Amino acid sequence: MTDAANFQTLHVVQHPLIEHKLTLMRCTRTPVAEFRRLANEVAMLLAYEVTRDLPLDEVEIETPLTPMRARKLSGKKLCLVSILRAGNGLLEGMLNLMPSARVGHIGLYRNPETLQPVEYYYKMPTDIAERRVIVVDPMLATANSAVAAVDRIKADRAQDIRFVCLLAAPEGVQRFAAAHPNVPVYTAALDSHLNDHGYIVPGLGDAGDRIYGTR
Ligand code: PRP
Ligand code: URA
Questions:
Q1: Confidence class of residue 1 from pLDDT cuts 50, 70 and 90?
Q2: Collapsing DSSP states into helix, strand and coil, what is residue 149?
Q3: Structural domain for 107, as ranges
Q4: Identified catalytic residue from 26, 36, 110, 131
Q5: What pTM was computed for the model?
Q6: Are 135 and 162 in contact (CB under 8 A)?
């Protein structure tokens, strides 16, 4: 596949469990229920990596044996932002590890002719500017949707933003980095290229259709 080292803001999260689960997701014959379960499982593994640099503070606690100083998360609270509808296929897995995170939604669909995103919904927590934001969407293809989503969130003054996906295309990574160089991208795999219809190759097909069984 493409060499991730060419992209400075890209983190390809490598782990045998992720690769195995992604292979199952790519297979055409994987049923909807299994695809949906795998999407959440991979999301949970990606959540582990995207939160790796969260700051910690020392606090005083008591174990059953002794007082001790131990570390707890500190700093900004989290907000997950799901790009509807396929982003919701990653939400549960992410929330398993970050149960207190707030959740925003942005509804975007890709016009199949122009490949431009059309917005139909936008609802964010009122304090999004004070939160660390993790945007989730399974696919970074042309990146038109991801760029539009992050534009919108930045207009709401969110500053600390990361983007998490299952698959990225080199074209999308490049476009996203040009538009939002301060937003790191975490992906489970960097695929080969986009086809003439803007689909990721080899990819896994239409993520929304596969999560919800709509085709
Ligand atoms: C898919 C996917 C992304 C977008 C990626 O959504 O979930 O949001 O395409 O493509 P891009 O990088 O070229 O913008 P889609 O528009 O199919 O909508 P859906 O989630 O409602 O199925
Ligand atoms: N959206 C998808 O769901 N799949 C792709 O391959 C590209 C965009």
A1: low
A2: helix
A3: 4-212
A4: 110
A5: 0.96
A6: yes
